[in-house]
């Protein structure tokens, strides 16, 4: 959240989702309270949840203590310059598409300076940012690269830039015509208005070190001398601003020359001896797919992009934050076995064997001893492409003691380290095809995130929890504060995926001026700061987002009736599956697994227990599959999911529309509400075997002629050809059973359910469901989830809520769902949960269809 603030004794205010806290829920707020100690300079703040920082960011400027001068000539004033990226669509949709396909995210459509692309674009020309300056005046530009994915060159036409600070650390001043600044980095430069009065462009465009697509546009603002002439004379038009000379997009030599000139402003207190010597490879990778032709595998050669440190691709926890789990001793959230060196040594910048291109996924951290002198060498690799990775370490400033191209040589390269005045930073670029070495003292206990500040790479897993700075007595000795009571706890909140959509993109003529999104702090030795952040209610999402889905692999979840004594028994052998039952016990108030395994049957068959039991057991089956050989690949290849009646809730939970816990609470209430509605009137359900849907409708019409309105019946479940369920009043059901033979039905089967589900008999349950759904966090699913009500996928959370409320009174369109999936090209299907009901249904629709059962 507060990028670069060390958060001494206050790690829970750092901000990264699922590392130090859980996200702020829509409609809620959270106040960050922290103390700034011994820091001054230019930092910034931004959202640290998926791609929300594309629009949620601003400057955080800490001025020197009162009476303390800068270590350079005092500028007349400051000008914050926030460089950003802009997409001509919702950034969250860009991310969602990339996460779905596994391919690289679409590049931005424009760069911005303080929220505006500049006057190279007709739509924003009138709003181009202008900075007035008086002749002879010296001002300080506080340049922040708040962009998502691109390093940038920045220059001001005809003016020299004197670099005096990077990442809130002063430097020995030096003069340059251009700076290179990576995402997350800040650079302060002095500029003097010593040119002919006029208008001069300041401009930024990409430095792209990778063999990959990039946004090749240029953003501009105008440095405008006060009282300078703007027109050439009568009828001769305006005087065009002077344009700067910018390096080529692949000018690594200029980028390297700039960073190599950076020096700390005085002798640096860099550790001279090393206690912890870590060697981290950083780079991209590719995840192989079980089905390379899947629409979810559109990376190179039918793969999905990944990224890693030491071949470990970081996965955000799904149940709690790393820090809360660490301090409260919660098992199963993360492990501390992150390798200090690559598991396999290889020619990092040469031709790398394809066998090393696929990283291992996990949530791993590395523990550091308290006050250890730490050295980390970050080595780029040529896997996929060499690239300059801007690596950011939370909770620390570090010294960049050396860098170079090629493979780091531990015998010869340390002799060239600068241990006198290395630059101090919090974000450092790993040279493309090269390495960089940093040092720091691990004196700040906490769970600190280290990650690439190119957000596409972060999403692919180029991150780790790197320093706990563990010390058995440090909280006592150093008077570190205990964990705050207002810590944002994750439970029972599961991260939505994909992330929420932002409001529709603004036309570039009305982009917000980002320079207003900042605040300044006067450094009075110790400055206490509070930031109150509110998350707005989710805006409407395009509900047709998944309209053109092309399924290849589906997860199918059963509904009520699939329960059987003994289900869940296998789940006890897998820790993650067993955890689901433990969580369920806390929510339900009884031992669910015991009932599933041991019964009694009458209890398990009751609506209020069978629905939660099937929901939990089905998701436990996912965890059983995950630990099987090739299981993770199968799960990753799934690009559509659905469930029969109750199973729709399971499918939504699997697709990340809501958390396991929130889903279970909904299912619990659903079962109770449906049971109460069933108890209010005598009703039942019966399956009609051997008739088509038209004949079943005629049978219902005939039965309805013989009963009162209160006992009317209707088709409640269009299951599959020759098998349709009818619901209604008890007398109406009895009439259907009596007439079935005359309509040439093969047989009827009275269903063991509490009442007339999926009819108006369930109307009393709707209001309770609506209230519960309104209070539940529901997000756009990460993959299409097919609705029982209309056999269509929906993306808008509000629409999903309405459909779930309607589902209990609406006929189940399962036959249409199955036929649609098969007609769209579905290749493989998996039934997860108790029983094998769905496999049989698929066979009734298409004899050639195969469904693999994954039971728990």
Automatic annotation (TrEMBL):
Gene Ontology MF terms: [acyl-carrier-protein] S-malonyltransferase activity; copper ion binding; hydroquinone:oxygen oxidoreductase activity
Malonyl-CoA:ACP transacylase (MAT) domain sequence ranges: 556-855
Catalytic activity, reaction form: 4 hydroquinone + O2 = 4 benzosemiquinone + 2 H2O
Keywords of this entry: Apoplast, Copper, Glycoprotein, Lignin degradation, Metal-binding, Oxidoreductase, Repeat, Secreted
Primary subcellular site in the record, as a coarse category: secreted
Pfam families xrefs: Acyl_transf_1 (PF00698), Cu-oxidase (PF00394), Cu-oxidase_2 (PF07731), Cu-oxidase_3 (PF07732)
Keyword Cytoplasm carried by entry: no
Cofactors, names only: Cu cation
Comment on bound cofactor: Binds 4 Cu cations per monomer.
GO biological process: lignin catabolic process
Keyword flag S-adenosyl-L-methionine: no
Localization (cell): Secreted, Extracellular space, Apoplast
EC number per UniProt: 1.10.3.2
CDD domains linked: CuRO_2_LCC_plant, CuRO_3_LCC_plant
SMART domains attached to this UniProt entry: PKS_AT
Any one of the GO CC terms: apoplast
Functional description taken from the UniProt entry: Lignin degradation and detoxification of lignin-derived products.
Family classification: Belongs to the multicopper oxidase family.
Protein name: Laccase
